[in-house]
Specification:
Length: 287
């Protein structure tokens, strides 16, 4: 009688995970999902591990300041300090080429973390890693992928009075509004171009992120005539962030224009003539 030799398939077994390893793994997932990091500026968001952070738009060369809290929302695992666990620092990794960063100071409240975009950065989306650090409370670090959209169009400028008339030797005020639509505060230099140098001066203006600022800009002609000119506005962070806006100054010699200039309160007249010029100033603004 022939023996039936059957070949049985060989089954290899994976080694079983010890029970305590599974428990630790589960605890680790719990820690990662529970600890949080709260950003208050330039956007407001509370994040947990792995969530993205959209920092909005900023121009080439500009510096974004991430302001965030130390609180983690988790109890400390330090038996000597049984309170809420606190983050100790925020750092930045994996920056695009030409970008720089400065980590927050240890234990500062709130954290301030700085990211400076390359002055030559082209328009587009860029990512990097922001990471929380804990030294004493047993927190698992939170790593966040942050996104910044680089655009040169973060500055706009408007004039409420693109054309202004005044008398020779009298000031004309142009009202210029600068709007910073990006997530980085910046300093902008305003230069009137096309006018004699002594008629006006360049000015530097700080405009916070996502805000607008209106300034009165005096121009004082020394002779009559019509003068088209341009306000040139440039970010000190990068010349790529730049705007120009056209204006026109009409300088004439007349008592009405002198009176209108007098209403600005800049020019002084002889004491005996002050009541007369005060009346002219009021009447000139009624025309």
């Amino acid at each position: 009688m022939q023996k039936n030799n059957r070949i049985l398939p060989r089954i290899s077994r994976l080694p079983a995970l010890p029970t305590f390893s599974i428990v630790l793994l589960l605890l680790g997932v719990s820690v990662i999902s529970a600890a949080s990091w709260t950003v208050s500026d330039p956007v407001q968001k509370t994040l947990i591990y792995g969530q993205p952070l959209d920092l909005g738009v900023a121009g080439p060369g500009q510096k974004i300041v991430i302001i965030s809290n130390r609180e983690s929302g988790e109890p400390s695992k330090n038996a000597a300090n049984p309170t809420e666990a606190l983050w100790d620092r925020v750092v930045v990794d994996n920056l695009p080429a030409g970008w720089t960063s400065e980590p927050s100071k240890l234990y500062e409240t709130p954290f301030q973390t700085f990211i400076t975009i390359s002055p030559q950065a082209q328009d587009g989306d860029y990512t990097f890693t922001v990471r929380t650090v804990d030294e004493y409370d047993g927190l698992v670090p939170i790593a966040i992928t942050a996104n910044v959209r680089v655009s040169r169009d973060v500055l706009s400028a408007t004039l409420s009075n693109a054309k202004e008339s005044t008398g020779a030797q009298q000031p004309a005020l142009f009202y210029l509004t600068l709007s910073n639509t990006g997530s980085a505060s910046d300093i902008f230099e305003v230069i009137p171009q096309g006018l004699p140098a002594k008629w006006s001066e360049s000015r530097r203006v700080f405009v916070p992120h996502n805000s607008a600022l209106t300034l009165s800009y005096p121009v004082t002609p020394t002779e009559g005539g019509t003068y088209p000119f341009t306000f040139s506005i440039t970010s000190l962070s990068s010349p790529l962030v730049h705007q120009k806006i056209n204006a026109e100054l009409d300088a004439q010699t007349s008592i009405w224009n002198d009176g209108k200039a007098a209403s600005h309160g800049i020019v002084l007249f002889p004491f005996i003539a002050q009541p007369l010029y005060a009346l002219i100033a009021v009447l000139s603004n009624l025309r």
